[in-house]
Write a structure and sequence with these properties.
This protein is α/β, with parallel strands linked by helices. It has two domains: 211 residues, Amidase signature (AS) domain (Amidase signature (AS) enzymes); 139 residues, Amidase signature (AS) domain (Amidase signature (AS) enzymes, Alpha-Beta Complex), CATH 3.90.1300. 40% of the residues lie in helices and 15% in strands. The protein contains 13 helices and eleven strands. It has an eleven-stranded mixed β-sheet with strand order 1-3-2-4-6-5-10-11-9-7-8, with helices on both faces. α3 links the parallel β2 and β3. It is globular and about 55 Å long. It starts with a helix and ends with a helix. Bound molecules: 3-amino-3-oxopropanoic acid.
Amino acid sequence: MLSLLDLCARIDAGRLTPEGAIGLVREAIAAREPEVGALVCVDPAPVVPGKGPLAGIAVGIKDIIDTADLPTRMGSAIYDGWRPRADAPAVARLKTLGAVPLAKTTTTPFAFLDPTATRNPNHPGHTPGGSSAGSAAAVAAGMLPLALGTQTGGSIIRPAAFCGVVGVKPSFRLLPTVGVKCYSWALDTLGLFAAGVADAAHALALLADRPAIARVEEAGAPRIGILRQDFCAAPEPEAEAALARAAQAAERAGAAIRDLTLPAPFGEAFAVHGTIQDYEARQALAWEYATHRDALPPRLRAALDAAQGIETASYDAARRTAHHARRGLKDVFSEGGFDVLLTYAAPGAAPAGLDHTGDSRFNRLWTLMGVPCVTLPVDRTSAGLPVGIQVIARFGDDGRALAAAGLIERALRE
Ligand SMILES: NC(=O)CC(=O)O
């Protein structure tokens, strides 16, 4: 994979020019894109700034995020040829940093559950996950050092884990979702994919203009709660094995490890995620549903059909349940004496088949809680498919989540 920090170091040392770095990416795309299919389009002649902390860094932009220089298609023929007038603020920020939004990456239609044609770079017969399929696959295939994605259910953490890259779903609203096609305004979160934890931390710190996020090396050994989220169906054995391996690596590195079981309010919050998500999608996609219902893919059409019947009272009750759980989560960290939680990133490795994007059951609660989540690869199955774990910190503690993920990443290499 292409390390963002390695490219930055080579450019800073004068061993590589920004244009040369973009050229490396174009070569990698030419070599891998025919098999992987992670990209919607590539800018043939982007502006390549000569300076800036991310000069020469090509970035993949999930195709629900507005770009002024490239079409934004939402993964749907409904938006064929749609050219936003302006860049989404996150894209504008990348350009200010010297980065090059070089390609749009595939998204499931409107970032829901209907699959893309993108293949898992680790095994072409397996899903890369979704909805940020192309971003995860492009980084995993070594085509891009950085890509943006979004998560409403599990759309950053799940594909990152399936493809074997680092994925970061930051604290809710750490990055602006302005200019990002909305599915659920209470859940949609903008995040990113990179080759390693330090690469991801560096990019997030710059994107969020919060340098402390990148000081992943400086944090001390964390107090880690091992969480199996027993309010949902158990994972595959490989997910349990990866969790155990990550916990043992963290303990070897000095972390304090303790099992944690969450009380009932968290299972109740897990259960209401869909009510909030789909009630809001009914409004967010009202125009598409009213004017192009037949052009919507089957899973999305069925979800919006069902969402028509969600009572506002149910939605309001779901929001109260989520709010109660978010307040309780602060106590879990403070009274439990935990810095981070360690849990499954997905039910297992990427499932076979390209007609689905996998199951987000280990991600949805944390998207609803609005807390920072980081996934990193820990194991591989006998078929060579990556298996990740998920590190979760309290709201606003994105740097600590990355620090703990970095500690585990380093310990696994030793
Ligand atoms: N957008 C989403 O997060 C939906 C998913 O989990 O695939």
